[in-house]
């Protein structure tokens, strides 16, 4: 992973600090990742567009379904829709 320091500034600094002390070869190295997820988009017809890059999307009954909303599929057979208070259903 430290070899990727050629491309990433943060990893480069970590690599330099790591090689400064030869005893570091015997120590554990830790790293942390951070993922920012886009909040839900509410469409005019009541559908909700979830995370664009969902890592846990799955196929259910021939459709792509977000795994965080599978309970809606199991309980109601579809995703729950959201409408404004003044919405009139035809």
Could you characterize the architecture of this molecule?
By secondary structure, the chain is α+β, with helices and mostly antiparallel strands. It folds into 2 domains: 34 residues, no CATH class; 47 residues, no CATH class. Strands 1-2 form a two-stranded antiparallel ribbon. A hairpin with a 5-residue loop joins β1 and β2. It is elongated and about 75 Å long.
Mean pLDDT: 80
Helical residues, percent: 10-25%
Proportion of beta-strand residues: 5-15%
Number of strands: 4
What characteristic shape results from the CA principal axes?
elongated
Straight-line distance between termini: 57 Å
Biggest sheet record = 2 strands, antiparallel
Low-confidence stretches: none
Q: Give helix and strand order, one letter per element, not per position.
A: HEEEEH
Give a nutshell description of this structure.
The protein has 90 residues and is α+β, with helices and mostly antiparallel strands. Helices cover 21% and strands 13% of the residues.
Key terms:
90 residues; alpha+beta; 2 domains; two-stranded antiparallel sheet; 4 strands; 13% strand
């Amino acid at each position: 992973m430290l070899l990727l320091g050629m491309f990433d500034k943060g990893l480069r600094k970590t690599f330099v600090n790591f090689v400064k002390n030869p005893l570091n070869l015997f120590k554990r190295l830790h790293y942390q990742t951070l993922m920012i997820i886009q909040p839900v988009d509410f469409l005019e017809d009541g559908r909700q567009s979830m995370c664009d890059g969902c890592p846990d999307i799955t196929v259910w009954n021939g459709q792509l379904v977000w795994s965080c909303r599978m309970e809606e599929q199991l309980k109601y057979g579809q995703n729950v829709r959201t409408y404004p208070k003044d919405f009139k259903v035809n």
